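Researcher: Hi, I'm a grad student and pretty new to this. My advisor asked me to get structures for two proteins we've been looking at. I'm not sure of the right format, so I'll just paste the first sequence and hope you can take it from there.
Model: That works fine. Here's the first sequence with its structure tokens right after it:
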Amino acid sequence: MNGGEMRVMTEEEKDEQFYRDTESIAHAKLDDRQLAMLEPLGTRRKVRRGELIIKACFTSSGGAIVAAF
């Protein structure tokens, strides 16, 4: 490349860039006050090791919060 040429990103590079750009948002750390505000809107349950929680191709108008203790 020379001058003002821009290299076109591959799909894999685009995916990696998207992950880097959204990691802090997607993996936000909620404090106790924020969790208390959200708790009435959902359900709390225990999951077993290896249990599928969210499927990547699943689309929903809602969201999911997974808390690990």
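Researcher: Oh nice, that was easy. Here's the second one.
Model: And its structure:
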Amino acid sequence: MPTSWWRVCCRARRAFSISRAMSRAKNSTSASSVSLVDSRLLLLISSAPCLHNSPSQSKPKADEGVLFTLRRPTPYSIMLVWKSLATEEGEDMSSENFVSGSDILDEVRALIESSQHEIRIAVAFWGKGAVQRIALNKRTDVPVEILCNASSGACNPDAMSELIGLPNVKVKNCNWLHAKVFLSTDALIAGSANVSANGLSLEGHQELKGWNEAAIVSTNGDAIDDAQRWFSAIWDNSNCEEVDDEFIGTIRPVWNARRRARPLSTSTKETDILSVLDSSPEVLTNRGIRVLRYPNENRSEGGEKATEEIRKEFDDSPPGEKISPILGATFSRADSYETKQVKDTPEEKRKALAGWPWNNWLIDTTDNATLFWFLGPQDSVQKIRQKANVVTFVVPAYGARKLPLSNGAYLTLSRKSLVELRRRADQRRRELGKAEIDIPIEELLL
């Protein structure tokens, strides 16, 4: 039970005790100290349908306040009823309450569900399922303005598309925003929580589990006015740009790259990839890790020669050039793959290289090396002429013993795990009826 709700219950209990005392001694001096707010709040709380589970409860009247529209009363919703009652007495009943954990979500939903005018949200990072999580899709009857920091690469492009797809929502990107503020004309919530994502590109309940969030819920008029002015200043800033489909297309590659390198939700520095797959498969989603299984065939003579040149160039390079600053990986070996023979035409080249997992990490279960292979961009391929008008293409790959993540942790691949992944890949090949497969590793979950 949230602390703020407990305070309200205590005040209701005090009102009830005073009311009993009044009935016993109508002329008691204590009678004058009973607030109309206390008395009416007691009646509202004791009769509120939202405090009962029976579906047969009659619906509240329109003027009974936002408290009754909610399945569970929250500090914010109670404050609104309390504030409206206090206005009749000329009392200033604005309040601030501290909330944490799941109570923050309750407060945000209450603010969104109860707002009678516009809703303004300044939250830097948005993740998968954000719209449904805060029930924003249920409020298409009021205008909504949202500030985010999507250019950081920490906003899920699909979540952005869902936001701008709502008819009453406008979204702007502000690349210096780091705030987490929910705002209506009646209340303000300011804290540490983003919406289903954080600046490390973690998203969803499982990945965000363990993060300790907190917020302040306020109905103070001065604070709300200050927050409205702060929001308007950012919204009107010429450096903030509208989020549309074209903008979302530019942030998708950045999001994909950050998602691949997002940290594991563990303090362990090195974790075997198979144990992660079997215990927390969602951790491997969107990391660009694929598993290969194919018939072991010899390279062509030209392909073997080109591969030897790739290996020699790698072996002769200085140690610093074997470290990728972008990937954070240290490569220990170079090798290659070779395509099937095709006619030497642009169209045949396009077909031969279509579908290759460019810029992905590969676990090659046909090979015996316990390495993560990185396949670079398509422009790194070499054309090998086999005979007149017939060519193959050699695709360089570079192996690393550890797959780096952004928090200094690594995924590793043991010999035992490689053998088990090979067994699962063979089983998947049989199920699909294919001679070779190239699939995301999460598809090999038993």
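Researcher: Is there anything I should tell my advisor about the second?
Model: You could mention this: The chain is about 35% helix and 20% strand.
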